[in-house]
What we know:
By secondary structure, the protein is an alpha+beta fold. It has helices at residues 16-28, 67-77, 90-102; strands spanning 7-13, 36-38, 81-87, 107-111.
Amino acid sequence: MGMIGAKTVVAVFESMPAAEGAKATLMRAGVPEKRIAVSAHLTDDGIAAEVPGQSYENQPGQPPEESEAARWGEAVRSGACVVSVLARSDEEIDYVTQLLRRENAYRTGIRR
C-alpha cells in the first residue's frame, strides 16, 4: 500500500480545528484525502493523560538519539493535533511543508 521512496510530512497544530483547516487547504491544493491523516488530541485518551507532565524524554535512562522523537511526542501529548501527509517526491515534500507552515503549524518535519 505504501509508495516506494515516499516520505511523510508531519506538522503539529494547536487544535483540531486548525489541523482540519490545514487538511482542507491541502485537499484544495490537490493532495488526495487518502494521503492525509489528522490525529485527535491525545489528551482526550485517558491512558495518555494518566501521568500529566511526564514525558518520555524526561524519564531517566533515555538515549540521546531519541530526544528528537521524544520532543515530537511531548508536543502531541501537550494537547496538540498532528497532520501527516504521505508525499510522493521531494518537490511535494517542499510544497506540502510550505502549505502547512502557512496554515500556522508550529512544528513541521519529515518522517522517513
